[in-house]
Specification:
Radius of gyration of chain B: 23 Å
Shape of chain B: rod-shaped
Largest sheet of chain A: none
Largest interface: A-B, 42 and 33 residues
Mean pLDDT of chain B: 62
Number of helices of chain A: 6
Helix content of chain B: 25-40%
Mean pLDDT of chain A: 92
Strand content of chain B: under 5%
Number of strands of chain A: 0
Helix content of chain A: over 70%
Number of helices of chain B: 1
Strand content of chain A: under 5%
Oligomer: heterodimer
Order of helices and strands of chain B: H
Distance between the termini of chain A: 27 Å
Shape of chain A: elongated
């Protein structure tokens, strides 16, 4: 099920846009989190948390789902395959993990943003800046990016079996 | 065993290469990556239990009661 070159280029374009966009959005989210955590102005902290919630639901989540789905399309639609090369398998696992954690974490972000809207200045400081998840997520995405650029060699047992099958001539 | 495509910069089909060996072994970088992943997971678990990166203590993913906000 190999895609045509034109379709592959389109899928690659969308995949790159969503993947790199996801990394950029996480960096922006991190900046907002740092602002929420370090700012002494009440309005700034509230605004940062509201912006973090909006960024999370309307930018991070769609980009994560797009990156994951287009990555699957790129793997299945080319001869790289989904389970033949370790760099693909590890990238897939890390992307799935990041997406799941993001989806599970966003309700907490919404709750914290709501708390920021309603809390008084004395309690705003207890909300933190969600740096742990954002920082960890950014690190994981950077690892995925490096794997996708360098594509280090290494066949999985499945990939090795398939390559042996392709090289073994069929008997008459 | 080579599995690198002819044009490694492209997300393209891996090119066929002559088989140099018939035995399979997990690449060293994969083993190192796996070890690093295990260490990272243990670190995350320890940090999470310690309340780092959010509100301290068991209320890491809950809100202080005085805010009066229900978790979704």
């Amino acid at each position: 099920m190999t895609m045509s070159p034109a379709l592959r280029k389109l899928a690659l374009t969308v995949h790159l846009l969503s993947s790199v966009g996801w990394i950029g959005a996480v960096i922006a989210y991190l900046a907002l989190g740092i602002s929420a955590m370090t700012s002494l102005e009440v309005d700034k902290v509230r605004s940062a948390w509201i912006a973090m919630e909006l960024t999370g639901w309307f930018v991070l989540v769609p980009l994560a789902l797009a990156a994951l789905s287009t990555g699957l399309v790129m793997a299945i639609g080319t001869s790289w395959g989904l389970l033949r090369h370790y760099w693909v398998v590890i990238s897939l696992a890390l992307t799935v993990l990041s997406t799941v954690i993001l989806l599970l974490h966003m309700p907490t972000v919404s709750a914290l943003a709501e708390a920021a809207r309603m809390a008084d200045s004395n309690h705003l400081g207890t909300l933190g800046g969600d740096l742990f998840h954002a920082g960890g997520g950014l690190l994981v995405l950077l690892v995925v990016m490096v794997l996708n650029v360098y594509k280090p060699r290494g066949l999985t047992p499945n990939g090795w079996r398939k390559q042996l099958e392709q090289r073994t001539p069929s008997r008459p | 065993m080579s599995d690198r495509p002819h044009q490694p910069d492209r997300f393209d089909e891996p090119g066929a290469a002559p088989a140099r060996e018939l035995s399979y072994s997990t690449p060293r970088w994969v083993k190192a990556f796996g070890l690093a992943a295990v260490v990272a997971v243990m670190l995350v678990v320890v940090l999470h239990l310690g309340g780092v990166g959010g509100m301290p203590g068991p209320g890491l993913h809950t809100l202080p009661a005085e805010h009066g906000v229900q978790r979704p």
